[in-house]
Amino acid sequence: MTTSIQEYAVRKRSYESVVLLHAEEAKQAIAIMREQGKTASLDYLMASYEPDESTLVDHRMPPWNDGDSLYENDEFVLYYNLNSPYIGLVRKLSSFSAVC
Predict the structure, then answer these.
(1) How many CA atoms, within 13 angstroms, populate the side-chain half-sphere of residue 91?
(2) Which residue in 17, 88, 98, 100 could disulfide with 55, CB within 3.0 to 4.6 Å?
(3) Average pLDDT over residues 92-98
(4) pLDDT of residue 92
């Protein structure tokens, strides 16, 4: 499911950082996305998920930028920017209410 950045501005939650790859490190995951699709790239990055080795990142704002593209499943959010290039994966944790 592709989700817009604006939708995430309303839906606040915490995330566990799984992986963030830049430049040369991101090439394989980006190539998989271009050749096989976003789901295949998300699956490729999920293979690196080790629950005891990931980093808990408690954000009141999502860990991606306005220029990033997003793709998600029930448990993970893939975010990427092909111009920079980088690609990241976070695991969704609990939702929380935004303080306005």
Answers:
(1) 18
(2) 17
(3) 62
(4) 85
Strand order in the sheet with 13-22: 55-57, 13-22, 86-95, 76-81, 69-72
Domain extent listing, the chain: 5-95
For 57, counting Cβ atoms within 10 Å of its Cβ (0-12 exposed, 13-18 middle, 19+ buried), the class is middle
Who has greater pLDDT, 58 or 31? 31
| pLDDT (0 to 100) of residue 55 | 61
Whether the CB-CB separation of 48 and 18 falls below 8 Å is answered with yes
Q: Are 1 and 79 in contact (CB under 8 A)?
A: no
Q: Annotate 23-85 with DSSP letters as a single string.
A: HHHHHHHHHHHHHH-HHHHHHHHHTT--TTTSEEE--SS-SS-TT-EEEE-SSEEEEEETTTT
Place 49 in a pLDDT band, splitting at 50, 70 and 90.
Answer: confident
